[in-house]
Amino acid sequence: MTTPTAVTLPAVSGRLGEYTVVDVRTPGEYAGGHLPGAHNVPLDRLDEAASALGSATAHRPLLIVCASGARSAEACDRLASLGIAAATLEGGTGAWAAAGHPVERSTGSRAPWPMDRQVRLAAGSLVVAGFAAGLARSRAHWLSGLVGAGLVFSGVTDTCGMAALLARLPHNRPPRDAVSFEETLTRLAA
After folding, report:
1. Catalytic residue, candidates 56, 66, 163, 166
2. pLDDT digit string (tens) for 77-134?
3. Active site residue 66
4. Based on the number of CB atoms within 10 Å of its own CB, is 175 exposed (0-12), middle (13-18) or buried (19 or more)?
5. What share of the chain is helix, strand, coil (3-state, %, to 5)?
6. What's this model's pTM, rounded to 2 decimal places?
């Protein structure tokens, strides 16, 4: 098993072309702005892409990115368990853009909220709805309890079922002119 590493923004600046950059955010997030030349392999499809990613490491080291670095660190851990060496960019795309580096956007795309923000909004809304409905019907308080239990489970297991569901919403899907997942795998393996 390889040990995943984290690289800093200064270490990557000016050397981005030395890496095969893989963005593990949802296609919608990716379309809203990504590092130049990055390939989109959503975190929930990482296992499908393992062979192509392994092939890509024969040419250049893998640099895995996401919005902040959390999902890319998870992706690096998963890849390491498969024997695929990869590094995560500390601070992710957010730090890259904040430092004034260019980001590419799909034509006509708008940047959806980052997934962690979407999860916080959905979970918070469900808790408030459960509380408010519980004022009229006491059993409705169970909704708030179930959301809280889901968040605890998410924290303990470092998974997020709500994020997996939200990733399937239309605003998180790729634009019509996006490169297909299959084409991305072909490009990575080449």
Report:
1. 66
2. 999 999 999 999 999 999 999 999 999 987 665 666 777 888 899 999 999 999 999 9
3. yes
4. middle
5. 55, 10, 35
6. 0.73
